[in-house]
Structures are given as structure tokens and as C-alpha cells.
Specification:
seven-stranded mixed beta sheet; 9 helices
Length: 268
């Protein structure tokens, strides 16, 4: 097997998203478009989408739409039954490490979240300013918090002012924030030698001399949060929550971009 190493000196993009293996019916069309468009507003340049067994034509159509735009790279991630039956969640850890090495020398950072999670800086608009302010590190680990709110019906007719997706329907933020390493997600510098895990990475403790920074920066909940729109029963430790305006500065552009792309996808 020929192994090709990319130079680490001149990456062509800053942030690449690594999306865990898609299978079955993982999302509504609106939420899949939302995942791409909101992360673009946050700083994503490209998405590596690992497809295990996505069998929904509508969702495949969305991925092909963004692939043609040069935003999504679809990585086929089929596993033989002897492997898939004996590994965690479609070999997610192997997939994350594949994404790291696939992007070394190409992207300065990789970002790992699920479809219903978003790493949101609270004092900067995007990830670029956020990591610059935080200072040099291999990993920026961000704590996870759940949201809940009213429901909408996926597939409702999209208009010029309305779209049914989780970000617009769940404005209530839990007062319980998970600790680091528990549901946390991260931004990772690709030049660092590490083994990627789902909620953190294994970075040698003495690595700071090589990167002129810290191996890991544990980001406080006043500086950034992982907004998680999954099951409220799992994410809300109780019924206590508060209205949040964290995403308000993105919502106008997000709504406009989602509606524009949903309409273009439906026309094709």
C-alpha cells in the first residue's frame, strides 16, 4: 500500500468537520442542511461525511448537492459484518482517526460533533477568532449542554421566512452543563500526534514543547459551549432551563441560507 504524507507547512483550509458514520435515517432533511449551514457560519470550510449505510434518497440528494459545491467530501465507510458487529458505533473511533490523518497537512484543524451538536464560541463569532484568543494548543475541549423547546413537523412547506429545524425550535438551555470528557466535543490541531477519541483525544503530556502551547485547553462554559439538540430526557438532568439567545446572531443568515439551499435541492 502506498502511503502519502502531506506537508504540514501550508494547509489549504482552516477547519474541516468530521461527521460520524451515517446510517439508516439519522436526521430530517432540514436538520442535515442546518448542520452544514450553521457550521459554515461558525467557521467550517469543508465536511468529511462518512457514509456507512445511508439509505434515504432525500438525504443522499442533500449530500450530493453540497458535494457538487465542493463543501462535502463523502467517504464510503462500509464494514463487513464480522467487524461491524464487534466494534462501537460503526467503528467511530477508527473513523475519527481516519479523518485526522486524511486532513493532516490539508486542514489546520478538524472539528468533531454529531448532527445535533454545535460548538459555539460565546465571545467570538467564529472558531478562527476563538482558537486565536484561547492560545496555542493541540485540543480545545468544550463542554456539552442540552436544549429543549417546541416541536415542529419535518417536511412542512418551507417558505421565505420559515424552516422547521431544531435550532429554531429549541431555545431553552439546560442549567446543567456536562463536565469535560462527558459528552464534550473538540477542535483538534491536525499537526499534533494523538489518538482521537469521541469526547477527547490522547495527547502526550509533554507535547507542549513541540507545539509551543498546551496539549489540551479545557474551555470554560463562559467562553464556548457544545449546544446539543438531542433527546431532552438524556440531556436535561431536570426540568430546569432558561431562555437563551446564544445563536441569535446567526439565525437570520442561517434561515436565509437554509431556505435557499433547500429550495435548490428540491428543484433538482
Amino acid at each position: 500500500m502506498k502511503v502519502q504524507y502531506n506537508s504540514l507547512e501550508n494547509p489549504t483550509r482552516d477547519f474541516t468537520m468530521c461527521l460520524s458514520p451515517l446510517h439508516g435515517m439519522p436526521s430530517t432533511p432540514e436538520n442535515l442542511v442546518q448542520y452544514i449551514e450553521l457550521n459554515i457560519l461558525l467557521g467550517a470550510d469543508r465536511f468529511a461525511v462518512y457514509n456507512y449505510s445511508l439509505n434515504v434518497n432525500t438525504l443522499n440528494k442533500i449530500l450530493m448537492h453540497y458535494q457538487k459545491k465542493g463543501i462535502v467530501e463523502i467517504v464510503q465507510w462500509s464494514l463487513p459484518p464480522s467487524v461491524s458487529n464487534n466494534v462501537w458505533y460503526y467503528a467511530q473511533i477508527a473513523m475519527l482517526n481516519d479523518c485526522l490523518h486524511r486532513n493532516r497537512g490539508v486542514s489546520r484543524y478538524i472539528v468533531s460533533t454529531d448532527l445535533d451538536e454545535f460548538i459555539v464560541p460565546l465571545k467570538q463569532r467564529g472558531w478562527g477568532d476563538f482558537v486565536s484568543k484561547a492560545g496555542p494548543a493541540c485540543e480545545y475541549e468544550v463542554r456539552n449542554v442540552g436544549l429543549k423547546g417546541s416541536a415542529c413537523t419535518p417536511g412542512e412547506n418551507t417558505t421565505n421566512s420559515y424552516v422547521c429545524s431544531s435550532v429554531f425550535q429549541r431555545p431553552i438551555l439546560s442549567k446543567y452543563i456536562f463536565n469535560h470528557h462527558v459528552r464534550s466535543k473538540f477542535i483538534l490541531k491536525t499537526e499534533c500526534e494523538t489518538v482521537v477519541r469521541i469526547h477527547n483525544t490522547n495527547i502526550p503530556i509533554n507535547y507542549s514543547k513541540e507545539i509551543k502551547g498546551e496539549p489540551v485547553k479545557y474551555i470554560g462554559d463562559k467562553n464556548a459551549l457544545v449546544l446539543h439538540y438531542g433527546s431532552k430526557k438524556k440531556l436535561f438532568k431536570n426540568n430546569v432551563g432558561r431562555n437563551t439567545t446564544i445563536l441569535d446572531r446567526y439565525l437570520s443568515d442561517l434561515r436565509k441560507n437554509m431556505i435557499m439551499n433547500l429550495k435548490a435541492i428540491n428543484r433538482n
